[in-house]
Model the fold of this input.
Amino acid sequence: MKYHITLKNPVFSLKNLGWAEMLVALMPILGAYYLGPVPFSFWIATILIIVSLVMGKKKNRRMAWGMMLPLFIFMAYYIIHELVLYLVADSVNLNNRIEKIVFMLCIIFAVPFLDLKKLTASLNLISLICILGLLYQMIILWGNGYVRPLSIPGLQMSQERFETLSERPSSFFMEPAAYAFYMYVPMALSLLNKKYWWTGVLIVTTLMTTSTTGLFASFIILASYMITQGFFKGRNIVILLFATALLFAFENLSIFNTGLNKLENTDWETNVRIQQGPRIVATMNVGEFPFGAPYDGAYNYVMDGRIPGGEVEFYGESVFMSTFWQLILTLGVVGLVLYLLIFLSIAKKNKHTVPLVVCLIVIMFTGTMYLGVNFCYSCIILYVLAIQYRPIKMIKHESNPYKQRTR
Done:
């Protein structure tokens, strides 16, 4: 497996695609589809675990696992915590817990098996397909129509997804925020590869979704990259001018009018994902804060009458809460700290992951990543990037981290 060499990798290269890397790139999209009662993302994670066990190299695992100590500690805490919860709670969804453990095992076993160059090429190809889908939806919206998330023919998806109509494009994703979450990874990788034109395409199309998360993610990625790479370097001045131009366009061009109106009408104190989490957590007993409330999840907590007065927003049997507050409610402050240490340890290992890590931590306050498919997707890419990425000037002085034949 080779180092990821900047400046020499084209944005799109079919010869650099890998089937395992393509599965990782498709995980967040296929997570909306089901094979029987089980989401496709679960089957993808299972396949990656099995294949990496059969075909992976033990030497690669030892090197990768040396960086994953915080993940191992968190997984051990999670398993013990859920076993205790199973004994004390009225009901626990075991299938949900098994899915989360499989996602964590997928991170552990898939990372040593993957190649960063192939992963980058796969992410770029899937991103391009998603962008084309987004532009198709924009054409419909410009004709004063409505759109629903694009579906993949032949695959089973939830009825709610099929019936969703919106004035905002989201391509193959359930909502614009999910599109923005997916794009922040290829966005950061394109900056590291110095493919600034591709960064611009990704940011512009993300802003077209009018996602507030997308707006923040775009500027956090740009700002973090500039700070970590040296703010006053010539190319960063160009990036700063580009970001300023994007902000001007977002405020003045008609294509972004919907997004501007959305931002102007957004009341952060009443935004469901941001405001509802702290309101629910504030009702916890003091003794519940270290390890979380003894309930299967936020829904059971609310239905048990723990929220005095006021309304709580539901989606089916789910309660709208961001990852940060959900972790405190279900796993406690201890779980939250161990969760954060996973990402902070990655950033400490390789400073080039800092833009992604900073963006991910900020999104924890607005998104619902928790321990689902997006957690698996993000951690796999972060670990692969931290282990394999080095700038060209460092490659000249270092040996290959994985001395194996490229798949």
Remarks:
- Residues 1-7, 262-270, 392-400, 402-406 have pLDDT under 50 and may be disordered.
- Residues 14-271+312-395 form one domain.
- Strands lie at 33-35, 38-39, 156-157, 314-315, 318-319.
- The two ends are 8 Å apart (CA to CA).
